[in-house]
């Protein structure tokens, strides 16, 4: 019978092989010892024999040795600390010298005439922005007022329109209904009809993925056809608007190019509109409000050049919800996100907000923001929901590009006080309006609109009064007044109201709105935004800790 194989190989060796290995090991050890001897390293560290027990002063000797050891240890620690301090000082010295270097460089840069902040904080002051806007209005032949299709009436500025109508040189005013992709088709059509009673109005959807020239050229070289994509296939209404302007320019028979000023409130898409017409990212566009600080000239066609202007500044006298949507972010307004969110929530239907943000039922804005903060993971230290951050995100959704909301045009439209029938006919003269209608119809046909289920209805809007010419002192005073007004208003208003019970009446363009505020102050519920007090009962935990007996329990 065949024997089964052993699993492990035997370690048995022939004697000759074993001796050979032993010899090799010995030789190797000898070699190592020799080398160590050469280097002066003695192999064995003499073992401390200790104090013999028979020694008469054994205890004293041991104590002395212990003290010596401690002293050495202290000395070592001291040296270590000194070294650490020295290193920290050195680092500090280095950082201060580099700081002063960068400061000097910065100061030098700021002193240079080409630097944009050369005149310090004055450069982008409110007055400067107003002056820039006025320059654009006076330099342009045609003023294009860009309106956010989600709230066109709220994006109209009566002061600007009046200034254009009163200005010399037969200036024309056009209305561009931008961001039409964020609302429903029927709403766009209604608004176009409403706006066209006063001025020529164009439906538009800007391209939001345009790249600058260098990126485009790189892509062009890399991938065939990439330019077509980046050139903004998702811009609609651009050919209609450009043709409309070119036709007007040709009709003027002027040697100079037609100058078109693009104006509007923050984030309505002024820069994006120019970029869409130009086909590249010529102007700085982004979600941040007030990105455009200076006027920028862009040639969009041979006979048409456009001016991208800084945003119109909303007057502080506007109601809180208007300021929440249309005012530029300023450091003094940074902390008002909660108030702004509250003002906006008052104009919306609670159910729609719950659906849009997928949050449970809430009683007031603070509760909503708490839900939102929890949902988005905006949690502060100690597990407190960061409602301020939630409010900022909520606001940026409304001014940005994602949230779909809409307002409805007034039921009984009438011309604003500054606009007469003659002015309307004058404004429509010289334009090929039938071509415009055709272009608008084509744009509406090709844009992918939002459906009614995914949108929020803004119950009430009104034109936003803007600042066209101000002195700095006046603005500061107005700002202070506005802050006081807002504080008073918030103190007297209930926190959250259903859209079914609108707070403000629908107003007609240009007319002063009659806000129906809650009459009785007694009904008002004052909400103070404070972190929720969380009481952690430590006493029981402490009691448990105290009850734990280490000697008996830990075994
Ligand atoms: N969905 C969508 N988003 C748009 C449209 N037009 C512009 N946007 C977005 O809106 C945001 C604001 O656009 P901008 O062109 O910077 O607006 P602006 O009016 O120049 O802004 P300011 O710099 O404040 O003057 C950007 O994030 C754009 O991508 C549009 O038609 N549809």
UniProtKB/TrEMBL annotation:
Biased segments, Acidic residues type: 484-494
Record SUPFAM superfamilies: P-loop containing nucleoside triphosphate hydrolases
Name this protein carries in UniProt: Guanine nucleotide-binding protein-like 3
Record-linked PROSITE patterns: G_CP (PS51721)
Subcellular location: Nucleus, Nucleolus
Domain spans labelled CP-type G: 130-315
A GO MF label: GTP binding
Span of the signal peptide: none
Predominant cellular place of this UniProt entry's protein: nucleus
UniProt keyword annotations, A-Z: Coiled coil, GTP-binding, Nucleotide-binding, Nucleus
Cellular component GO terms, alphabetical: nucleolus
Cross-referenced PANTHER family: GTP-BINDING PROTEIN-RELATED, GUANINE NUCLEOTIDE-BINDING PROTEIN-LIKE 3
Feature: compositional bias, Polar residues: 501-528
Family annotation (InterPro entries): G_CP_dom (IPR030378), Gnl3_N_dom (IPR014813), GTP-bd (IPR006073), GTP-bd_ortho_bundle_sf (IPR023179), P-loop_NTPase (IPR027417), TRAFAC_YlqF/YawG_RiboMat (IPR050755)
Biased composition (Basic and acidic residues): 57-88
Biased composition (Basic residues): 1-46
Source organism (scientific name): Conger conger
Domain of life per record: Eukaryota
Region (Disordered): 1-123, 484-555
């Amino acid at each position: 019978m065949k024997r089964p194989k052993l699993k492990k190989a035997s370690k048995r060796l022939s004697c000759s092989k074993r001796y050979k290995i032993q010899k090799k090991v010995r030789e190797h050890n000898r070699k190592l010892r020799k080398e160590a001897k050469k280097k002066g390293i003695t192999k064995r560290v003499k073992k401390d024999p200790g104090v013999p027990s028979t020694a008469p002063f054994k205890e004293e000797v041991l104590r002395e040795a212990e003290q010596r050891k401690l002293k050495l240890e202290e000395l070592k620690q001291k040296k270590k600390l000194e070294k650490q301090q020295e290193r920290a000082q050195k680092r500090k010295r280095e950082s201060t010298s580099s700081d002063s270097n960068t400061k000097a460089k910065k100061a030098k840069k700021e002193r240079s005439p080409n630097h944009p902040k050369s005149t310090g904080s004055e450069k982008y002051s409110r007055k400067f922005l107003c002056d820039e806007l006025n320059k654009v209005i006076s330099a342009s032949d045609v003023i294009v007022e860009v309106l956010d299709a989600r709230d066109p009436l709220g994006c109209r500025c009566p002061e600007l329109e009046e200034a254009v109508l009163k200005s010399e040189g037969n200036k024309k005013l056009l209305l561009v209904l931008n961001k039409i992709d964020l609302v429903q088709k029927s709403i766009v059509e209604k608004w176009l009809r409403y706006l066209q009673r006063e001025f020529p109005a164009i439906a538009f959807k800007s391209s939001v993925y345009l790249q600058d020239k260098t990126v485009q050229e790189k892509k062009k070289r890399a991938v065939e056809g990439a330019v077509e994509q980046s050139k903004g296939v998702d811009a609609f209404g651009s050919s209609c608007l450009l043709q409309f302007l070119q036709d007007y320019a040709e009709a003027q028979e002027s040697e100079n190019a037609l100058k078109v000023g693009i104006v509007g409130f923050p984030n309505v898409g002024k820069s994006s509109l120019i970029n869409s017409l130009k086909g590249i990212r010529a102007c700085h566009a982004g979600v941040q409000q007030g990105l455009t600080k200076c006027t920028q000239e862009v040639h969009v066609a041979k006979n048409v050049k456009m001016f991208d202007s800084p945003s119109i500044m909303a007057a502080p006298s506007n109601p809180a919800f208007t300021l929440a949507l249309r005012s530029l972010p300023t450091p003094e307004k940074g902390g008002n996100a909660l108030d702004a969110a509250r003002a906006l929530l008052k104009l919306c239907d609670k159910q729609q907000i719950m659906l849009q943000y997928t949050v449970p039922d809430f009683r007031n804005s603070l509760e909503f923001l708490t839900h939102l903060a929890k949902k988005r993971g905006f949690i502060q230290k100690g597990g407190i929901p960061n409602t301020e951050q939630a409010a900022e995100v909520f606001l940026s959704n409304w001014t940005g590009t994602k949230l779909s909301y809409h307002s409805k045009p007034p039921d009984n439209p009438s011309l604003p006080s500054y606009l007469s029938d003659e002015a309307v006919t004058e404004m429509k003269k010289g334009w090929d309006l039938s071509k415009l209608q055709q272009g608008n119809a084509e744009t509406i046909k090709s844009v992918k609109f939002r459906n009614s289920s995914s949108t929020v209805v803004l119950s009430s809007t009104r034109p936003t009064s803007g600042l066209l010419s101000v002195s700095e002192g006046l603005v500061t005073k107005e700002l202070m007044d506005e802050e006081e007004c807002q504080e008073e208003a918030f103190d007297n208003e209930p926190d959250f109201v259903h859209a079914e019970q609108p707070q403000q009446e629908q107003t007609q363009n240009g007319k002063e709105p009659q806000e129906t505020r809650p009459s009785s102050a007694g009904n008002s519920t004052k909400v103070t935004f404070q972190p929720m007090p969380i009481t952690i009962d430590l006493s029981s935990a402490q009691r448990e800790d105290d009850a734990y007996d280490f000697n008996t329990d830990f075994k």
